[in-house]
Design brief:
This protein is of the alpha+beta class. Helices cover 34% and strands 16% of the residues. A hairpin with a 5-residue loop joins strand 2 and strand 3.
């Protein structure tokens, strides 16, 4: 007969095995419940984009699809990412019935955004915070492609988080200037939309939306990409040169067209934002310091002054 102590030991062994089995089979007893879920708000902008656009988020290094959704009536989408915080690629494409607001037309209007009209964004990590947001714009597209992502790929990826960060920085320096701080190219913009009906929004987000609109008008006016073509065609030409030249513009009209002025920003704000918001946008823009290389939205200060001077001259007499 076994002793009482032996029976107790045997019972403890049975309990231990019963508790250990789930860990041995599943890796973790609380496997699914312990994995955090992060919802990322995505705002694509080439002018406001309508409902129905495809939104996908990928592992930025492997190209594995993490989540997908479509834009809602506000032109934004929400992407759920489970247990992942590394580099990401976000791809937004049009489709049947999808439109984007084209402010470059003589009469601005919503125009068709086909499935081949896509915008990318690449981030070295998921933004911090309880409600992270990422913008997907022509500026982020430049950075993503420069980092090595293929807009036509079904699994866009880049070599490393450092490659993504370096590419986004080159976009900032080439277009906004190294000292620009009003918004980051990965911030979510508040873009203009049909009817000039934007009435709410963070001032810096509004400034970003106005900048994209002003940039669109500027490259069309400069004839970037030829005498005709959609705004997406023009940005495609801009992207090609930027990537082929390693993160800079060498064609003179491209270099000039990306240098958005304060007057262009104010015209966009006045046309598509409410008066109060327009004042906020231009107020921020007027605080921006000029960049030494001429880049960035930098309204020139206005004012009057007086001065004195001396001079010499020559003449003849008869």
């Amino acid at each position: 007969m076994k002793s009482a102590s032996a029976n107790v030991s045997a019972k403890r062994a049975v309990v231990f095995l019963a508790l250990a089995v789930p860990f041995a089979l599943g890796g973790c007893y609380f496997s699914d419940d312990s994995v955090p879920v992060s919802s990322i708000g995505v705002t694509p902008a080439k002018g406001a984009i309508s409902a129905g656009a495809s939104c996908q988020i990928f592992n930025g290094l492997t190209g594995a699809l993490l989540s997908s959704s479509t834009t809602d009536s506000s032109g934004a989408c929400s992407l759920a990412v489970t247990g992942y915080s590394g580099p990401v690629a976000i791809k937004v494409c049009g489709g049947a019935g999808v439109t984007y607001f084209d402010e470059t037309l003589t009469t601005p209007a919503n125009v068709s955004m086909s499935a081949s009209n896509c915008l990318l964004a690449a981030s070295p990590s998921i933004p911090a915070g309880g409600a992270p947001k990422i913008g997907v714009t022509p500026l982020t597209h430049l950075g993503a492609v420069l980092a090595g992502m293929d807009p036509s790929s079904t699994s866009p990826s880049a070599p490393s988080a450092n490659a993504i960060s370096a590419a986004n920085t080159k976009v900032k320096v080439a277009i906004l200037g190294a000292n620009f701080t009003a918004f980051d190219i990965l911030d979510a913009p508040t873009p203009p939309k049909l009817g000039g009906t934007v009435t709410t929004g963070d001032a810096n987000s509004l400034l970003y939306g106005a900048f994209i609109a002003a940039l669109s008008k500027s490259i069309v006016a400069a004839g970037v990409g030829g005498a005709s073509g959609s705004v997406f065609d023009r940005f495609s030409a801009l992207t090609t040169e930027f990537t082929e030249q390693g993160g800079k513009f060498t064609t003179e009209n491209m270099k000039t067209s990306v240098r958005v002025t304060g007057a262009q920003l104010q015209a966009i704000a006045d046309s598509f934002y409410s008066p109060a918001l327009s004042t906020q946008v231009t107020g921020i823009a007027n605080t921006l310091a000029p960049n030494s290389d001429g880049t960035g939205p930098k309204p020139a200060p206005t004012g009057t002054g007086t001065g004195t001077g001396t001079g010499t001259g020559t003449g003849s007499s008869s």
